[in-house]
Amino acid sequence: xxxxxxxxxxxxxxxxxxxxxxxxxxxxxxxxxxxxxxxxxxxxxxxxxxxxxxxxxxxxxxxxxxxxxxxxxxxxxxxxxxxxxxxxxxxxxxxxxxxxxxxxxxxxxxxxxxxxxxxxxxxxxxxxxxxxxxxxxxxxxxxxxxxxxxxxxxxxxxxxxxxxxxxxxxxxxxxxxxxxxxxxxxxxxxxxxxxxxxxxxxxxxxxxxxxxxxxxxxxxxxxxxxxxxxxxxxxxxxxxxxxxxxxxxxxxxxxxxxxxxxxxxxxxxxxxxxxxxxxxxxxxxxxxxxxxxxxxxxxxxxxxxxxxxxxxxxxxxxxxxxxxxxxxxxxxxxxxxxxxxxxxxxxxxxxxxxxxxxxxxxxxxxxxxxxxxxxxxxxxxxxxxx
Length: 386
Hints:
alpha/beta; Rossmann fold; Dihydrodipicolinate Reductase, domain 2; nine-stranded mixed β-sheet; five-stranded parallel β-sheet; 12 helices; 22% strand; Putative dehydrogenase
């Protein structure tokens, strides 16, 4: 049986960037139908945004609380099954908690919550609900990132010794928040973003990618966190030394003041026998470097790649697999798990491979540890989740 999951959205209305990305990703596999939402904190803008998307005006709600109240009054076979939350960070926890308590599955933009305390509380709610929870760490959806993880896990590189991960942006090299840039305004506002700027917005992506590909967990951090643009209230640049459980070490860089840079996320992992390198600017290629033989280039859509890479490959070889496709892979994978649950089946390992609540908690612990380390004279700070 083909299920088309009924999707609701919170946030992502007129003038928002990421909402459109989520909607495109959800549509790509025809696994969801957007049936309504609360698209803005302003009731009129929210309703107008939904109507502009061609939705039933009766399901274009003025607030997320109205959404849950009225959706739960509908028959079960009509109400929303999945809620996509694409709001600023301070409006993540409450709608996610309410959705789960209403029996709905959740797809949530990162970072997961406003604070680690909220993240731990949300983790309890997810466990108690038994519902699926996906956090959109997009870069884990790329086929060659899946391949990199599979190669490291297979042991062909030997024990991991070194991890380098970087996320350079340049769009906040000037005080964009002092103008009419809505995206810059909330990301640099501690009341909406939380205690971190660049480290919360893109540092969490780099941290997640480092742990995902290496298969290791960070145990300690030594951070140099900076606010470079005068008058800015949150960090816009940082470099962090990492220690992983098991003995490996690493370096993480995340900056939004690297003038001229866009979004060239890059990761390198080195083991005893060889290493690998992936970057978003050439997302179809994975370099695998050996100690005693020439470098190999792995490409998407090839038979030699792992089942995880093939499961997340959408186009024939030579056609670029990009950001929207990687985003869609997360939506598709969680949809496959929800449908398997409905049918009483065990989802495939490939479908289960999406970031969830555990990654969200670790991301919030990363943010709080990075900022604490940057403010401290202590050389190493343990990454504790408590």
